[in-house]
Amino acid sequence: MGRRAMNMRAGWGVLAVVSLLALTGCGGTAGAVASGKTAWDDQGARILEKKVVFNSIGLKMDIEIVDIKSSLAGNLMRAQAALRSRDSGTLSFQYRFEWYDADGLEINSGAGSWRPLLLNGKEIKTVQGVAPDQRAKEFKLLIRQPD
Amino acid sequence: MKKLLLVVVALFLTACSTTKPNFVFNDQTAVDQNTGLVWVRNADMPGHQLIWRGDDNVYEFVKHLNADNFAGYADWRVPTMLEFTTMIGYATSLGYDKKDMKTWPFKRFLSLGFTNVHDYEYWTATRESPTEMWTADLISGRVAPRPENRPYYLWLVRGNGGR
Fold first, then answer.
1. Are A44 and B52 in contact (CB under 8 A)?
2. Are B122 and B106 in contact (CB under 8 A)?
3. Which of residues 127-156 of B touch A (CB under 8 A)?
4. Using an 8 Å Cβ cutoff, are A84 and A123 in contact?
5. Residues B149, B25: contact at Cβ < 8 Å?
6. Which fold, A31-144?
7. Could you count the other beta carbons within 10 Å of the beta carbon of residue B92?
8. CA of A45 vs chain B CAs: smallest distance (Å)
9. Cβ of B113 under 8 Å from any chain A Cβ?
């Protein structure tokens, strides 16, 4: 095999590794994001547009987000998510809520702290958060595995 | 299809123009003896214009009014385009001259005995497109599709009126 062919093969290898890293590690924070955005249907009734994104294959194998709900506590948006462990052992996670206004701007950026969450085998637990003020129209629940 | 609908509405307006208003007024309501519909006597219950989608919108207002059992009923709703067309037909049946404000629908309704009727547009419950709803203009008497993302007044009704 010529030197040029070997160089090309090495180049493809580096590209593959970089691509893999990009896919697994650079798709945002490794973890999961469950989001709910306030919207209104054709009748004018308040609805919640839900979306779940996993950025970690490991977390996706450990945990399932089975439900996302939202209601109003007075004028404040309240969010709730039900999480189910797919594992038979005890698993440890961390979560926090982020809140956004109608224009998608974060409210109190970075103010929410990570909270611990323990899930026993196949257990379902709900986590809840309340918006810091009435501007909130969207929430994101971030879940990650502890370091 | 839209043109056909407009023609139907125009025909309906013409037909209604021969029907005179026949309301029995109560403290908070007015019963249309022609259709059986019951209208809220106050043509601006919220006290301001409302939006269709968003906080404090038409849907929320109607929900709260029904939860409060307003005037003893819990089935208040936004009138349909045809129901509002019939209402405006009553007003125009009394005569309409665009140069004479006294003949404009909102003035006619006030003189009939309704309160807080505004010289502006009112919501109907009839949707034209994903971004347009039919509204009733109480100045000109025109019932037509308008952009949904603007605030209009709300005048509530109950009953099915046989339509």
1. yes
2. no
3. 127, 130
4. yes
5. no
6. Immunoglobulin-like (2.60.40)
7. 18
8. 6
9. no
d(CA A80, CA B59): 24
Inter-residue contact A86 to A64 (CB < 8 Å): yes
Contact A108, A69 (CB under 8 A): no
ipTM over 0.90: no
Contacts of A85 (CB under 8 A, 6+ apart): A62, A63, A64, A91, A119, A120, A121, A122, A123, A124
Residue from A77, A81, A76, A86 nearest A96 by CA: A81
- Measured in degrees and rounded to the nearest 5, phi and psi for residue B102 equal -65, -20
CA nearest to B143, candidates B95, B108, B91: B91
Determine contact, residues B135/B19, Cβ cutoff 8 Å.
no
Return the higher-pLDDT residue of A2 and A124. Answer: A124
Structure tokens at B107: 């003035």
Beta carbons of B16 and B90 less than 8 angstroms apart: yes
β-bridge pairing B23-25 and A91-100: unpaired
Residues whose CB falls within 8 Å of the CB of residue A24, separated by 6 or more in sequence, listed in order: A30, A56, A57
Cα A21 off chain centre by: 19
Q: Which two tokens stand for residue B156?
A: 């509530």
Q: Do residue A40 and residue B54 have CB atoms under 8 angstroms apart?
A: yes
What are the domain boundaries of chain B? 2-16+35-158
Residues 13-52, chain B, touching A (beta carbon < 8 A) = 52
Percent of the residues in chain A that have a pLDDT greater than 70, as a whole number: 80
**Tens digit of pLDDT for each residue in B35-83?**
999 999 999 999 999 999 999 999 999 999 999 999 999 999 999 999 9
pTM reported for the whole predicted model: 0.77
Q: What is the DSSP letter of A32?
A: E
**B57 in contact with A at a CB cutoff of 8 Å?**
yes
- At A19-71, the pLDDT tens digits run 444 444 444 558 999 999 999 999 999 999 999 999 999 999 999 999 999 99
